[in-house]
Amino acid sequence: MKIDPNSAADLSAQIASAIRDAIVDGDLIVNQRLPSEAELSEQFEVSRPTVREALKRLAAQSLIRTQRGATGGAFVNKLSFEEAYPQQITTSTLLLSMNAVSFETACEARYALERSCAPLSAKRRSADHLATMRAEIHRQSQPGLTDEAFCASDVAFHRALVDGAQNPVLSYQLAGAVEAMQPLMNMITFSARDRAKIIELHTQLADALDAHDAGGADAALAELESYTTNLAVSVMEKRSSKA
After folding, report:
1. Left, alpha or beta for 194 (phi > 0: left; psi -120 to 50: alpha)?
2. pLDDT tens-digit profile of 209-222?
3. Which domain holds residue 66?
4. Where does residue 240 rank: exposed (0-12), middle (13-18), buried (19+ CB within 10 A)?
5. Claim to verify: residue 204 and residue 119 sit in the same structural domain
């Protein structure tokens, strides 16, 4: 593991990157103890505080864990898909906001990904996934539910659909699509959408998954995509005319 002391990049970031690469390449394996701070400091020819900062970066990414005591130290962590969700969501959210991705582009990508997941969910969904979807439909129908709470329920409903495929790689990849793109769509359409229509489509989708009907699930998602896109166009046209 090496760093470039002449690089403009932060030294702690370089060290974290070097250790992360060693983990990815298999040079450091799960549960292996990393060299001590003093050893790393000598290896990289930096101060111990710089090493400590690098280890903090890796711990924040759940790539390492620390243990106290005589047998303690920093160890390579076994990163789970669930632990990686927040990073995926944060990265997706930043990409959408920084690159000014259009509503249409985000909507197209999100539903294309979700529709590819629906056949697997129709085949593999568990009773718990269906129960979550039904509970969110019930929540969405409650009088007085705030727009923010409705949006959160919307995300939870579609999260259950994705997780129903029972494929952790898909769930991880779609975390950004559902939990980063969905709020973007909600912000534009939440005040104008017909909640009854959303609940109707969600019910159709849950019923299709309950019946293991992949075609019905796809049709419900296609209709939901069309409704969402048309609603956004209408909202943005009204805003434009007012401006």
Report:
1. beta
2. 999 999 999 999 99
3. 11-76
4. exposed
5. yes
